[in-house]
Design a protein that fits this description.
Structural class: mainly alpha
Shape: globular
Oligomer: single chain
Number of helices: 13
Distance between the termini: 45 Å
Radius of gyration: 21 Å
Helix content: over 70%
Length: about 300
């Protein structure tokens, strides 16, 4: 029997990588189509969509953990991890709220801008918070990003607040997720449990004041309930992709999401894109190109073993 491996057959490592890339593309593709889904929720206020999303994402994540026999993991979380989960919950809640508001108010292009500049904000946080030393290409990328924000501020006649809130809140969320010792699913459940009391109070207030759309009709109620699985599915795909795909590859794939959102805002939402706004985006894309090329080059640099 021929035991040689054919060149056209993927090895186990290559197969895992290819599957990881497929999972990653699936996650970022779904996130990129979020404007199509959340645009259907314009019948409700951004605040109601946010609290319903928090609660239904929690319900779905707890259900999945129960079916997987992992619910006991939540009981083993220590106090420090719960505090970190609360910080992550506050950051992602701010992110979700700003995003829903942006989509409902027809600012999808600005939402896309937020996720384009997010990697640059993450690098800036590293300098400010962790005193990280940047390489020359990273400084150039940050300078171009800051210039782009100035150009877009002049274009909008105001700072691009939705984009800045999205970028800063998600960068904060990413920083917390780097130090919290929880997998994706229990982490999401813990964050939901931390936010649940506030979300429940908000639901009651919205209902008492007569502003609730949940329960007003079957379609409206169903769409609000769908925010749970719609949120969870790409997170699960991302969790499956992350350990199988190099960080440099995931860093490139992430631009699929804001790219699709920008296309949706321009082609479907017909949001205005004057030349000055395109100029601001072009500066962001140039900054990201420099940032990404530098990251890919460093990831391919051979590691020199240092004798002990």
């Amino acid at each position: 029997m021929d035991t040689t491996t054919r060149r056209d057959q993927p090895t186990g490592h290559e197969g895992a990588r290819d599957a990881g890339i497929a999972f990653g593309i699936g996650a970022y593709f779904i996130w990129g189509l979020f404007p199509a889904f959340f645009g259907l929720l314009s019948f409700a206020s951004a605040g109601e969509v946010l609290v319903e999303r928090i609660l239904w994402t929690l319900v779905v994540s707890l259900l999945v953990m129960t079916l997987a026999g992992r619910l006991g993991e939540l009981r083993r979380i220590d106090a420090r991890t719960w505090r970190l989960a609360a910080v992550a919950s506050a950051a992602i809640s701010m992110n979700w709220g700003a995003y829903v508001y942006g989509v409902i108010s027809h600012h999808v292009v600005e939402c896309a801008l937020g996720y384009f500049i997010n990697p640059l904000v993450t690098v800036a946080f590293g300098v400010i918070i962790f005193r990280e030393r940047l390489r020359a290409p990273q400084w150039v990328a940050l300078g171009l990003g800051a210039t782009a924000v100035i150009v877009l501020t002049i274009d909008y006649g105001r700072p691009p607040w939705i984009a800045l809130i999205l970028a800063c809140s998600f960068a904060t969320y990413g920083l917390v997720k780097k130090v919290i010792r929880l997998d994706a699913l229990p982490g999401l459940a813990a964050e939901g449990l931390a936010a649940a009391p506030f979300a429940l109070i908000a639901v009651i207030v919205i209902a008492v004041t007569g502003n609730a759309t949940f329960g007003s009709s079957l379609p409206h109620t169903g769409l609000l309930m769908l925010t749970g699985p719609v949120t969870l599915v790409p997170l699960v795909l991302f969790a499956l992709a992350a350990p199988r795909v190099p960080l440099s590859t995931m860093g490139i794939l992430q631009y699929l999401t804001p790219g699709l959102q920008l296309a949706w805002g321009v082609a479907v939402g017909h949001e205005p894109m004057p030349a000055s706004r395109w100029a601001g985006f072009a500066l962001i894309w140039l900054a990201l190109a420099i940032f990404t090329v530098d990251a890919v080059r460093r990831s391919r640099r051979p590691v020199v073993a240092v004798p002990e």
